# Entry
Amino acid sequence: MQRVTLEFATRDLVLLGLIPPRFFQRYEEVELLETIRLERGWRLQLLRLRRRGPLRTESELAHESQRIRKMYGLERFELVERRPRTRDYILLVRQRNPPGLRELVDLAGGEIAPIAPFRITESITIATIRGEETAIRRVIARLSKEEVPFRVLRTTSRPYLADPALAGLSGRQREVLERAWALGYYTIPRRITLARLSRLTGQSPPALGKMLRRAERHLVARFLAAESSVPDDRRPEVDES
# Structure
């Protein structure tokens, strides 16, 4: 698997129909936290959306949900969290893909996915995609053919989440850890409860709690094993305050 991070001028993506033309009248930026599923015609993603001005209340969003879905091509959306201090919404969004994105998914044979870091502002878009190297090459060739200016910021052929500490985790454990981290389950204080997180992972709270603890146990065990193999004079100092 390969990952590549590209930089675009946002106005070019608006012209291609990949971003709604009036989006930045209401919002400052959008950040992809996780792509849960990408199909030809739709995608399911966790997003952080920063609004210009005060946030709407949950009841106001519910009242305007039909207008919001129509304006941005949403099949549905769920408010996961409001962050009034930073003017951010955390949203679970199922969205119809515009024709340009459908073409890219077709071209890649479904072998690509948008991943973090992926952030769109009014001027610049930083986009990272993961996939088979041949699929990514086809996508980049198509972008070049369409004369979309971009530059490659970073590319790597390392396996996604290939850290040795993660090697013993199942794919499902990795997925759940990523989502828990993205939604602030490990922040202090927590930004999302286990019960709310369970709704977004398809697990019951007890089953999710066990899955997270097993994954955490594995990571702690690998960390302690690595620490014990480092000579005392080479171990980093730890701030215990």
